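User
Class, as today's exercise, I want you to study this protein, comparing sequence with structure tokens, and judge whether sequence predicts the tokens.
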Amino acid sequence: MSPRRWESCSCGPSCATTGCTSGVVGVYIPNDPGGPDSLAKKGEIVFDWGMLWFKGQRVATGQCNVKAYNRQLRELIHLGKAKPSWIVSHTLPLDNAPDGYQHFDKRDSGWTKVVLQPAA
């Protein structure tokens, strides 16, 4: 994750209005050995809790319920009503999964989402 993304998280309380609720979306992991600084490597960010408290703000987090939407989304994709292909950067044969994972894990430029195709 780039240092600029971490900065957007840490400025939240000072940028947001008094009394608001901010929802934290995205994928956050307990640690990130490839992170840009020592805090990111531990899965931590600098956050102004004092300003959050002073302005009476709230923060909501949580994982989305993927299983609740899995089948519905699959059906929409199958019917051509949803087109998630805009985010797919690579399509690889299943045998190349380890190579694709290495690129994704190292955050190589252009590796956003990989679709693996099983053998025919």
Summary: The first strand starts at residue 21 and ends at 23.
